[in-house]
Amino acid sequence: MDIQEKIRSQITENPVVVYMKGTPQFPRCGFSGATVQILKTNGLKDFLAVDVLTDPEIREAIKVYSNWPTIPQLYIKGEFVGGADIVRDLHEQGELKKLLESAVE
After folding, report:
1. How far are the Cα atoms of 13, 38, 48, 89 from residue 9, in angstroms, in the given order?
2. pLDDT tens digits for 7-64?
3. % helix, strand, coil for the chain, step of 5
4. How many structural domains does the chain have?
5. Cβ of 12: how many Cβ atoms within 10 Å?
6. Residue 91 to residue 65: CA distance in whole angstroms
7. Cβ-contact 21, 28 below 8 angstroms
8. Which of 14, 28, 67, 100 has the fewest CB atoms within 10 Å of its CB?
């Protein structure tokens, strides 16, 4: 399985995926930490978190996959949602909660 297939598999087999720096318990950048905190604030307890710092190949490949240059990246139900700023904006508008609820039904 090549790296793009691996990413596609992670995104399609898990309702919510975050590619981030560090882990949900120990984020290694403020944007990743803020994204995880927003997910938890919206009631999400279980999601796949992929630490791009432990896999440089995924770190670069996810940027190509999404055509988005920064980490973290959030995927819900196989669809790219966005990075930290978009996640924050969706949260503030109340839209993120709806997306997450539809993903975990």
Report:
1. 6, 25, 12, 27
2. 999 999 999 999 999 999 999 999 999 999 999 999 998 999 999 999 999 999 999 9
3. 55, 20, 30
4. 1
5. 12
6. 24
7. yes
8. 67
Residue type, 41: T
Question: Would you mind telling me the total number of residues written for the chain in this entry?
Answer: 105
Token pair of 46, please? Answer: 């279980």
In whole angstroms, give the CA distance from residue 55 to residue 92: 32
Q: Is the dihedral of CA 4, 69, 30, 11 positive or negative?
A: negative
CATH code, domain with 78: 3.40.30.10
Domain span including residue 76: 3-103
Number of H helices, E strands in the chain: 5, 4
